[in-house]
Give the backbone structure.
Amino acid sequence: MKLGILFSGGKDSNLAGFLAKKYGHRIKCLITIHSRNEESFMFHTPSISKVKKQSEMIGIPLISVNSEGKKESELEDLKKAIGLAIKKYGIKGVVTGAVESIYQASRVQKICDELGIECFNPLWQKDQIELLYDLLRYNFEIIVSGVFAYPLDKKWVGRKIDEGFIEDMIKMREEYGISPSGEGGEIETFVLRSPLFKRSLRIKNIKMSGKGNSWRGEVMLR
Amino acid sequence: MITIIDVCKDRLHYLEFVKPIVDIVRNLGMEFEIIELEDLNGKVKGNKMIICGTSLIDFDYLNYWQKLLFLKDFDKPVLGICAGMQLLCKIYEGKLKESKFIGMNKIKLNKEFLGIKGEKEVYELHGKVCEFGNDWEKIDKDGECVYHRAREKYGVLFHPEVRNKEMIKRFVEL
């Protein structure tokens, strides 16, 4: 089936897209909503230029739509973007990286229903540690691009997701109740390589901003 | 041994509608087998069966409902979830009606059902609902939870593998 990936540039949407391809689907485009609202309930997207770089590495076109980020107009913007993907690339369904959030998943389900297309959530209800280990197993290269929960701090931004990271996150869950793959918005990630990439993206430097237990790393690519 | 029936037309939906149930069963340390509805030939190893759901616009399973007719003589507990409930409805000569719901809903149970009782929030994703015959008992007024007492068959319209996972545990440990 021709599919579009709802794509944020982070680990979940990249893994979901990879799985869709692994199960025999044709990925026709990536769909990104760039929300001006940093607190958006629906979308967590770094700057469009970096998502564009990822789409070039995958060799699949990117549809990106800007959104003011107001709660319900965001959904209209998403619907518009998916509608565009249907028209332009003939997609018959979308893939999301939803794991736990019923809020996000059911809104995408409703939009797909209105547009008469399929909705795939291949990470749905997946165990978070299993998810992190799957990323290693499939040779994803991922860095933490933001932290937003105590006691995570500046030191965590820029860390690679490797075995040591997963072990540390398991400890964070035990001691502080942090969800290991950041389901509660505790961390954000940026993918430098997935099995769909032709080659890795390389970091020039990371511009840090934030304070205390809330830091964002703007990844500058070569 | 639990027999898990996968009714999804598209294999990618296995990850969304079957695997979450497999994970719960596996974490309970239970043995299980997974059979695709199309491949059923009346022989199953399980002493219990779970029939899973599928995506909102996938109704392909309705072409294969006769594959489950042997359940009328299967004297062991069966739990049908969403599409699985609709399949139970078909083999017991019930009626399916168009009715869509996406998201969280509230139901009120008039007695305990697979470990849940009272008011409950449930996650729903369906395009049809079931009207069962008189052999079936409705546990809530809308028939989101139904039970065939004589044959130990359970049906739920919502997805307990998403919210109310303990229901699956309770069923597996019956």
User: Anything to note?
Assistant: Chain A has two domains: 2-120, 128-221. Chain A has a mean pLDDT of 93. The longest helix of chain A spans residues 73-89.
